[in-house]
Amino acid sequence: MTQETNPLPGPRIEASRLLIGIWIASILVVTLGSPAATRMYVWPWSLAYGIALACPFLLLLFRSFGPGKPIALPNERWLVLTGAMAGSVLLSAIASPYRGPSVLWSAVLLAGPAAFLALHDWLQAGERRLALLRTSAGILTAAGCVSAFLWLRVTIRQPDIETALEFRNPFPLGHSNYTAGIGLLLLPCAGYLALRCKGWSRVGWALAAILAGFLIITSASRGGLLGLAVLAACTAFPIANRLKLRRRTVVLAALVGIAAVLTTNPRLTNLLRPRPPEAMPDASVTQREGMLRIGWMLGRDRPLTGWGPGTVPLAYPRYRAEIERGVDNVLQLHSSPVHVWAILGAPGILMGLAAIALALAGIRRKPAGSAEAPTASGVLLGVSGYAVLCLTDWQLDVPVFTFALAAALALVASAEPVPTPTSTRRSLPGYLALATLAVFAIFARRDPTPALNVGALSYGRGNTQELRAIALLQESIQLNPDQEIVHFNLGWLLVVRDPPQAERHFLAAARLDPDRVGTCFGIGLSRLNQGRTDDALRAFSIAALNDPVFLVSPWWRAEPFASIRRDRPEAFLRLAEEVRDRLQDRGDWVAREARYNAALFAWILGRGDVAEMLRHSFTDRRVAFFSGRPELPDFDSAPINVYRRQRSGYPVLMRQPSLAVPSDLFDVQENALATGELRFAFPERGWVPSPLLLELLDAN
C-alpha cells in the first residue's frame, strides 16, 4: 500500500489490522457456534462474545488517543445522531427497574454506534468500500454454509420429502427468523459482488447469492419471504438494466419464483388456505398479536426511557394477563419498532426515524474513490428486504446483525464529505468510549434471581430442604416481585405450612401467568386448608374450566376431593354455564368452545347425554367420536401419569443458558386416558380469555 493511499505510520496500521482481525474472528466464532444466539452467553463462547463487542470500543480508543492521522468522523448530523443513540440506550438502562442486568444487556446495542464510527474511520483510508462489502458478505456466507450443512444433515434423515420440507431451518443462530435475516443481508451483498466481479470470483459470489435464497426459503419465515419479495421489487429493474434484460422477463421470472416457493412450502401453503370463522386461530398469529399489544403497553407506561435493553422477559409477565391468549413469556416482541418502543421508549423510535431520514438525505451522493464502489442508494436498496423483516422480528441482540447494519450505515455516511479534524473531534470518540466503559464497570451486573430460583428448585423433599428452598425463593422475590416461577413454587411450599400466605402467592402467580397448570388448584387447596370450602370449590371449578382435563384428574379419586366433586357437581356446571352465557355473543371459536365445554362438563358429571355433545361438537374428530354414541369412558380407573413440569425455556429467557433446567415443585397428576387417546375431546388449556379468568378469581 502506497504512502498516498495510506499515509499512516506502520505500527498504527499493524495494530489496527490486528484488532480488526480479532474482531472478525470473534464475530465468526459467535455466529457459527450453533445454536449461537443462546450459546454466546455460555463459556467459552461468551469470551468471543465479549471480545466482539469490545473491539469497536478498543478501535475508537486507539484511534482517538494513539499515534497517526486523526480519526475521521462523520459530519455533525451523523455524529450527533450516533451520540444520541448511545446516550438513549445508556439512559434507558440506568433508569430501568432492572438496572444491573439492563446495563449488561445494553452492550450489544452500544457496540453498534461504536462499530459505525470505527468503520466510518476505516473507510476513509483508501478505497475500502468494496473491501468492507466483501468482508461482510464473507462472514454471512460462512454462516450460510454452516446453516445449509446442518439443515441438510437433519432433513436427509426425515422419512419423506414433505416432512423434510416442513422442517424450518434454525441454523446456526438457533431460530429460523435469524436464518432468514442472514439470507436477506447476504443476498444483495453477494448479488452486487457477482455483478461487479469477473471470472471465478463472479461464480463464487453467484453461488453465495443462491445460498442466500436457499436460506430464506428453508427458513419458511413469513417476514423473510415478504422481505425477499420487497428486495426483488426494489432491485429487479436495476438488475435488469445492468444485465440488459427486458423488464417483463424479470417480472415473469419473479412471479414464477414466488409461485414455486408458495406451492412447495407446506407451512406457507397452510397459511394461504382460508380458515372458517369458527376455527381456532393460528397460534403464531395469536401470539404475535399478543406481543404487539403488550409491547405497546410496555412503552405506554414508560414512554421516556422504556424498560431498558434486554428487560422484556422481566417486564412481560406484568402484562401477560391482559391478553386473551399468548405465550407465558418471551425473549423479544417480534417487531423491531415495537421492541424499541418497549425497551427505549419514544427516544429510541425518534433515533431510528432520524437514522432513516439521514440515510435517505444522502442517497444521491456518490462515494469518493472507485466508480465500482456501492452508492448510498445501492446500500439502502440492498437492506430494504431486511428492513421489512425487522417489522416482524427483533434481531439486534445478535452481534452479526448489529454490526451488519452498522457497516451499512457507515457505507452510507462515508459518501458524505468528512469535516476537517480538530483536537476536540479527534478525542471525542475516545472519551465517549471511556465513559461507556465506566458505566459498565459501575452498574452492569448479572441478574442474581435465576441462580437463586434454580438453586431453590433443586432441593428435594424434607423439612430442612424445603426451608432452604423457601429462604432462597423469598430472597429472590425481594429482588424482583414479578416472578411467576417464584410465586408458584412458594405457594406449593407454603400450602400446608402457611395457607394464607400460599394463597397470596398463588394469586400473584395467576396474574403473571394465568394458564399455568396447578395455579388455580393451588388456590383452592390453600383455601381448603383454611377451612373455606366454598371458596376452595370455586377455585377448583375455575381450574377445571380453564383446563378441562383437570375435571377427570386423578386428584378427584382421593378424599377430600372425591366427596367435593361427588356431592357438589352443580358448582362446576354452574360456572361452565355462566362462562358459556358470557361468551355467547362473541360469535367466534371461543363462543363455540364455551358451549361445547358446558355440554362436556354435564356429560362427565352425569347431567348430560351424548346427543347434546354431538350437537355442540364442531371439530371433525369430536363429531366423528360422538356420532358413534359412545358410553362415558371410565376415567376413574384410567392409568395415572405423575411428573413435575420442567421449565426448559427459563435459562434462555434469563440469558443464562448454562443454568440447569428447573422443575416445578408441584406434582402433576394426569389422567392418561384424557391426555392420551381422548385428548381431542377436551378443550386446550388456556381457552378461557385471561381477563375473564382473573375476573372469575377476583369474584370470590
Strand portion = under 5%
In spatial order, strands of the major sheet run 1-2
Which residues sit in consecutive blocks of at least 5 with pLDDT less than 50? 1-10
Number of strands: 2
Number of helices: 35
First-last Cα distance:
80 Å
Could you say which overall geometry the principal axes of the C-alpha atoms support? Answer: globular
Q: Largest beta sheet, briefly?
A: 2 strands, antiparallel
Tell me the layout of helices and strands:
Elements: H1 10-32, H2 36-39, H3 45-65, H4 76-95, H5 99-105, H6 107-123, H7 129-155, H8 161-166, H9 176-196, H10 199-219, H11 222-243, H12 247-264, H13 266-272, H14 283-301, H15 312-315, H16 336-344, H17 346-361, H18 376-382, H19 384-391, H20 399-413, H21 423-443, H22 449-457, H23 463-479, H24 484-494, H25 499-512, H26 519-528, H27 533-546, H28 561-567, H29 569-583, H30 589-604, H31 610-616, H32 620-627, E1 640-643, H33 650-653, E2 668-671, H34 672-675, H35 690-698
Antiparallel strand pairs: 1-2
Helix pairs in contact: 1-3, 1-7, 3-6, 3-21, 4-5, 4-6, 4-17, 6-20, 7-9, 7-10, 7-20, 9-10, 9-11, 11-12, 11-19, 14-16, 16-17, 18-20, 22-23, 23-24, 24-25, 25-26, 26-27, 27-29, 29-30, 30-31, 31-32
Report on this model:
It is built from 35 helices and two strands. The protein has 700 residues and is mainly α. It is globular. The termini are far apart. The N terminus is likely disordered.
Supply database-style keywords.
700 residues; mainly alpha; globular
Brief rundown of the structure:
By secondary structure, the chain is mostly helical. It has helices at residues 10-32, 36-39, 45-65, 76-95, 99-105, 107-123, 129-155, 161-166, 176-196, 199-219, 222-243, 247-264, 266-272, 283-301, 312-315, 336-344, 346-361, 376-382, 384-391, 399-413, 423-443, 449-457, 463-479, 484-494, 499-512, 519-528, 533-546, 561-567, 569-583, 589-604, 610-616, 620-627, 650-653, 672-675, 690-698; strands at residues 640-643, 668-671.
